[in-house]
Design brief:
2 domains; alpha/beta; four-stranded antiparallel sheet; binds magnesium ion; single chain; Enolase-like, domain 1; TIM Barrel; 358 residues
Length: 358
């Protein structure tokens, strides 16, 4: 089998998808994290495409190493590994379609048919009362964990921060019925994170995520050692080596890998096996391939008890689907798909029509 074409489509100007065609007529669809779609497209089409053409997609490990080494010359992190994620997941899609099996079958034995999810609110511009109303809505829908994003990463220790007021409003509305998680995406200094963290302890917050800048691992360790509530981090780790570094230097309680950032399934698989029985809460903010891959991984794993992240914001991929089927969500759980590959049937002609160019 040979790769004959590689393209990155930026759907609705936001979501990067990699399409890989082969000489046997099997087409792979892969997904990348959404933060830098045009960098992803440029990386896929100007750095990696040339390397991929005429390669055998069945050799996914060899291809991953070629791409990773090519990226190393200009710094393999962030955007370039995110671009590799789209390619690697498309290559896995080709492999799984050729074999005619769902991803979970390649990973092990499925022991769970449905996976609990948590409601992840992404808005920083709503009032504490509005956030409490949202939490209440999702609680009524069957969700038992709710994550709020607060503080202002672009303005460390901002006086506008309303984290504690928001937590208080949710507790006032729902008592201790819902587990609250607070993600500040590095919006605090170490001192402020410890100060706010002690208040979060008082509110019995379940998890405090990325309290300080992602590069400040010493600071993270200091926050983790000062507080009794669990500290979470890992969404900006891209390889096994990054997780080793995070654990050694930052020592967070909960680790958060994400397959569409870690260079795809090939490295994610190694990361999951490296993390073993440590506390894991998978980072997941996109509703299609990302969510599906994480469901397949969680379906073969009984030791990860924490729910999978589910972004509750409006999303054009849900409102106006690019797939002919969808994942089934029921009372705070998603069913693990059993169809071939990821379990999603993409309509590539619709995707091409919705792909924006700049
Ligand atoms: Mg986060």
């Amino acid at each position: 089998m040979k790769i004959t074409e590689v393209e990155c489509l930026v759907i609705d100007g936001i979501y990067p998808y990699v399409i890989i065609e082969t000489n046997e007529g099997v087409t792979g669809v892969g997904e990348s994290f959404r933060r830098s779609p045009w960098v992803t497209k440029a990386a896929v089409e100007t750095i990696f495409k040339e390397i991929l053409l005429n390669k055998d997609p069945l050799n996914y490990q060899g291809i991953w190493e070629l791409l990773y080494n090519a990226a190393s010359t200009c710094g393999p992190y962030g955007s370039l590994l995110t671009a590799i994620s789209g390619i690697d997941t498309a290559i896995w899609d080709i492999n799984l379609k050729k074999e005619g099996v769902p991803l979970h079958k390649k990973l092990g034995k499925k022991i769970r048919n449905s996976i609990p999810i948590y409601a992840s609110s992404m808005k920083r511009d709503i009032s504490p009362e509005e956030e409490a109303d949202r939490a209440s809505f999702f609680y009524e829908e069957g969700f038992s964990f709710y994550k709020m994003h607060s503080a202002y990463p672009e303005e460390v220790d901002s006086p506008r921060d309303k984290t504690l007021k928001t937590v208080e409003a949710i507790r006032k509305k729902l008592g201790n019925n819902i587990k609250i998680m607070v993600d500040v995406n590095g919006g605090y200094s170490v001192k402020k994170a410890i100060e706010v963290g002690h208040e979060l302890e008082r509110f019995e917050v379940f998890q405090f995520e990325q309290p300080v800048h992602v590069t400040d691992l010493e600071g993270l360790k200091c926050v983790a050692e000062s507080l009794s509530i669990p500290i979470a981090s890992g969404e900006c780790c891209y390889t096994v080596q990054d997780f080793k570094n995070l654990i050694e230097k930052g020592n967070p309680d909960i680790l958060q890998p994400d397959a569409i950032k870690t260079g795809g399934i090939t490295e994610f698989k190694k990361i999951m096996s490296y993390l073993g029985k440590r506390e894991i809460m998978i980072h997941n903010t996109q509703p299609l391939i990302s969510t599906a891959i994480h469901l397949h991984f969680l379906s073969i794993n009984n030791s990860i008890k924490l729910p999978l992240e589910y972004n509750i914001e409006q999303n054009s991929l849900i409102d106006n689907p690019i797939t002919k089927n969808s994942l089934n969500i029921e009372s705070g759980n998603i069913l693990v798909p059993d169809d071939n590959s990821f379990g999603l049937d993409f309509d590539i002609s619709i995707m091409k029509k919705r792909a924006k160019i700049i």
